[in-house]
Amino acid sequence: MLRRPVTISIAPSRLGLACSTLLALAVCALVACYGPAWLAFASSVTMVVGLCREWRQARALTLRWVPGQGNGWQRKTERGWQPVVVSCAYLGPFLAGLDVAGRRHWLWVDSVESGQRWHLRRLLLWSE
Q1: Dihedral, CA atoms, 19, 23, 28, 29, nearest 10 degrees?
Q2: Of 45, 68, 58, 78, nearest to 18 (Cα)?
Q3: What is the pLDDT of residues 19-73, one digit of tens each?
Q4: 100, 75 Cβ separation under 8 angstroms
Q5: Three-class SS of residue 88?
C-alpha cells in the first residue's frame, strides 16, 4: 500500500484536440462532397466554433490521492486542497475517462507524465 500522497497533474491534451480536428475535417469534407454549398459552409463554421470552445474549456487539473479514511481524492483549487469524488468511466491502454466532481475528463497519453499515469492506473484499479 502507498504510504505517501500521490499527486497527478493533468494538462490539456494536444493529441485529443488533433483527433477532434481530424474528425471535424473529415465531416466537413464529406458534407462538401455530397451536400450543398450552404451546408458545407455552415458545418465548417460550426466545427470551428466547437473546436475553439473545446480548447478554451480545457483546463489543467491537479489531483492528489491521500491514503487513509474516506475516498482519499483531493483537487487543488485557489483555496488549497479540497476533497473531491473521482471515479473511473473508462480505463484503456492509451485513454482514460475520469469523472471528477461530476465532470468528465479524458486523459490522453500526452495529458499526464508516464510515472504519474502509472500511479493513477494503479489507484483506479485498486479502487474497483
Answers
A1: 100
A2: 58
A3: 999 999 999 999 999 999 999 999 999 999 999 998 888 888 888 888 776 668 8
A4: yes
A5: strand
How many residues are present in the chain? 128
Bridge partners for 92 per DSSP? none
Name 63's bridge partners. Answer: 8, 75
Cα 74 to Cα 22: distance, rounded to the nearest angstrom: 35
List all residues 6 or more positions away from 77 whose beta carbon is below 8 Å from its beta carbon. none
pTM across the whole model: 0.76
| Beta strand ranges found along the chain (DSSP E) | 6-10, 61-65, 73-77, 80-83, 86-91, 96-100, 103-107
Q: Where are the domains of the chain?
A: 6-12+59-127, 17-56
Specify the residue for cell string 486542497. Answer: 81
> Residue 52: which residues within 8 A CB-CB, separation 6 or more?
none
Of 94, 96, 98, give the one whose Cα is nearest residue 85: 98
